[in-house]
Sequence to fold (263 residues):
Amino acid sequence: MTSGTARDWDPAEITDALPGAIAGEEMHLYFQPVVSLADRTATKLEALLRWEHPERGMLGPGVFMEALQAGGLQSELEEWTIREALHQLAYWSDGIPGQLSISVNLAGPHAFEGGLAEVIRATADGAGASMQRLGIEISEAVAGGADRDGRQALREISDLGVDITVDDFSGRIELDELRRLPISALKIGRTIVAGIPDDPTMLEIASMAISRGRELGLGVIATGIENPGQAASLREIGCRYGQGFLYSVPMPAEVLEERILRG
Fold:
């Protein structure tokens, strides 16, 4: 569980505290499985950032992300997240069954930086981890703003074998734009899933995402699934993969190992 809100915390305080938190041992990765909607088998993991603040407890990124961006620390923390994910993959390569991948979330400007592919390559080499088991997620809004240089930066990452997912997908990107992006999956946003099955518009958007993914040969994941009715409706319209509290809360690596990976 996380505690604390952005409303009761001065943004300047967050900005001042973040460098020490990054340099110290207050930042952690929690992991939430993506599962097959058919049998609930875990197929991959999403790495979710948590800040274990000494006074405010465990905080999710919604509390500190705006301050992170304002303080110019987002790229630094995202690179830390990539390093941690790759080191975790290297650790899990011994004694853990299966070949689960880990995806991390990146902000637009950082995802489009030309040097990020080399950061990933060097970190994977140093950790002894496979880049083919790393994924990155960028939001639909970010993906839609990719210019030629941005798409090239993404291609350099994709050429390493890293899967790229468009997160929070709602169909605002046209089909031709999606074709130009080196992506492997679409993730239907939680606000859309929250309206399923009662809201016909949300169900229609989800169906469109699944059709678009099928046309482009992309995987489609529904995120934010919280109840069996949502899962059943998504299965009925052809969605194969999902993520959400119905299946698992985000959990630290050692708990994930005990409950899922070694089970």
